[in-house]
Design a protein that fits this description.
single chain, about 375 residues, alpha/beta, 8-stranded parallel β-barrel, two-stranded antiparallel sheet, 13 helices, 11 strands, globular, binds beta-D-mannopyranose
């Protein structure tokens, strides 16, 4: 080959490699908030990488605050597996009081979030906000969303709640750096059990509620360490999933909750919905340049000793699409003494499903905290 040809070939290769990289970067999921902090962008990138590698971060609600047999400082996940979950869920319900709706001090939640972050763990916040009209709980379906929007009787009360939330997340700081948070408000809205869901609100009002929440926190309160997670309950089609979607510019993570699929009486067809749900959110996330997740699930009281390896894991690892959920979170382990009920989703030490849970977390696709913290972001 002549020298000129060699140079031309070299230049061609150089330019094509360069442009491929540029395109790859362009296709990488990006946060909507252009002012998002460095740590927040880094977290989003990490989630996107976990997803691209077909791995899933394991999460647990209220993990560090209490467990089936104990209250205050601990972890049923660590007691059973020797490691902490990679992701921790907390709920903002009843913010303004000392304790949240499940009796955890907000000051403790802050402490747990900081401890987890220092170890490399991730935080997600949900919010079972009280019904501002009935002044009760999120399960009170008295119509209220229309009156919470601008001009409505409860708008000011709503702003006060958002201000309390803003103060809470602004306080999540270590060495002058804000701890990034996956914020998942107004979840399971395709069901009618919360005041913000289903027949208790119009499609338009739901979208306005969501958009207002984002705009107020991001633009008015100038909070730039939140990643917004949209999270429906069970669904069967992409159209159903997107029915009340507030818009690409208001959502960063596409999530969903599904408990029905794993209930003891669920048919094999119903169980298979999870595969379909995982595929739909993964394909949508791919199309929209976002991250996807299985934001809540589990089998209450883990009544099946092989639930984790025979029911849950095969869904997550079913195919290339289902593997893309960046994280999956199981719900809380209610303290038996306090609540007098078997309402737990992770085995406690000594529970008959503990060995199966250990096998589940040992699967190479499942990430607990220590593995997650060692992961380098490309
Ligand atoms: C529900 C139950 C309730 C709890 C609520 C908010 O699923 O666990 O007991 O109060 O979540 O955490």
């Amino acid at each position: 080959m002549k020298t000129q040809n060699l140079i031309a070939l070299f230049l061609f290769c150089f330019i094509s490699i360069g442009s491929t990289n540029a395109t790859d970067k362009e296709n990488e999921p990006k946060l909507n908030d252009k002012k998002a902090t460095k740590a927040t962008n880094a977290l989003y990138q990490k989630l996107s990488q976990v997803s691209a590698e077909g791995k899933t971060i394991f999460g647990h609600q209220d993990d560090l605050a209490y467990g089936y047999h104990w209250w205050g400082n601990g972890s049923d996940v660590k007691n059973v597996t020797g490691d902490y979950p990679g992701l921790y869920g907390w709920d903002m319900g009843e913010i303004g009081n000392d304790k949240n709706l499940d009796g955890v001090l907000f000051s403790d939640i802050k402490k747990y979030i900081k401890e987890a972050y220092a170890r490399g763990g991730i935080t997600t916040l949900s919010w079972h906000m009280i019904n501002l009209k009935a002044k009760t709980s999120s399960w009170d379906t008295t119509r209220v969303v229309d009156e919470m929007l601008k001009g409505g009787k409860y708008h000011e009360d709503f702003l006060k709640k958002l201000d309390l939330f803003a103060d809470f997340v602004n306080d999540l700081e270590i060495d002058g750096e804000k701890i990034p948070v996956l914020f998942r408000p107004w979840h399971e809205h395709n069901g009618s059990w919360f005041w913000w869901g289903g027949k208790n609100v119009t499609e338009e009002d739901y979208k306005s509620l969501w958009q207002f929440t984002v705009k107020y926190l991001r633009d008015k309160k100038k909070i730039h360490h939140l990643i917004y997670v949209y999270s429906t309950d069970a669904f069967q089609t992409e159209e159903q999933y997107l029915e009340r979607f507030p818009g690409d510019e208001y959502v960063d993570v596409l999530g969903f909750d599904d408990y029905g699929a794993f209930r003891e009486n669920a048919t094999p067809e119903r169980e298979a919905w999870v595969i379909n749900e995982l595929e739909i959110v993964a394909k949508l996330a791919d199309k929209k340049g976002k991250v996807c997740a299985f934001s809540e699930s589990g089998l209450e009281a883990v009544t099946d000793d092989t639930f984790f390896t025979e029911k849950l894991l095969p869904k997550l690892n079913h195919n290339e699409w289902t593997k893309k959920a960046a994280y999956m979170m199981l719900w809380r382990n209610a303290n038996y003494e306090k609540e007098q009920r078997d309402h737990f989703y992770v085995p406690y030490k000594g529970h008959s499903s503990a060995s199966d849970f250990i096998k589940f977390v040992e699967d190479p696709s499942i990430l607990l905290e220590s593995e997650l913290s060692k992961m380098k972001v490309n």
